[in-house]
Design a protein that fits this description.
Blueprint (H helix, E strand, L loop, with lengths): L1 H24 L4 H8 L3 H8 L7 H10 L3 H7 L2 H6 L3 H11 L3 H13 L7 E5 L6 E6 L4 E4 L3
Antiparallel strand pairs: 1-2, 2-3
Pfam family, one: HTH_3
Protein name: Helix-turn-helix transcriptional regulator
InterPro entries: Cro/C1-type_HTH, Lambda_DNA-bd_dom_sf
């Protein structure tokens, strides 16, 4: 069930990104679109940020203004695909940002090699310093160096 919810959220995020891009390409402000569709700027902002999804009637109103609803719902903008994350991807980024540098380097090494979590990941220290500058995977000797 979580997979379905994640996929649905990705589609809602994509729709929002496509809506924002089309609105900007058409040179409309959020306020102008809100007035033309009988909603508020706040609600439109929530649609564009993927916080909520519009009702079918709203899509018809957008189409009347000139929005390409089929494109927004089915094909979309490739630019939006690159910036739309599902729940797991967002969680991974959040966890990564909220951990120390040594663990970040270990995670990068683990993901880069495709090794399972059971494979031991060693962190190499330079001159006994506790600041990690590189991670070494013992089995494959893959080195990931942090830019300084």
């Amino acid at each position: 069930m979580q997979k379905i919810n994640d996929d649905l959220q990705v589609k809602i995020n994509l729709f929002g990104c496509n809506l924002a891009n089309q609105r900007k390409n058409m040179k409309y402000s959020q306020q102008e679109i809100a007035e033309m569709t009988g909603t508020t700027q706040n609600i439109l902002s929530k649609y564009e940020r993927g916080l909520t999804s519009p009702r079918l009637e709203y899509l018809f109103k957008l189409e009347e203004i000139g929005f390409d609803i089929k494109n927004m719902l089915i094909t979309g903008d490739n630019q939006c695909m690159a910036y739309t994350l599902n729940h797991q991807e967002k969680m991974l980024i959040d966890l990564f940002r909220n951990t120390d540098q040594a663990l970040q380097l270990q995670a990068i090494g683990l993901l880069a090699t495709g090794n399972s979590i059971q494979n031991k990941l060693e962190v190499k220290r330079q001159d006994g310093d506790l600041n990690q500058n590189s991670a070494v995977i013992a089995e494959k000797q893959i080195i990931i160096t942090k830019k300084q």
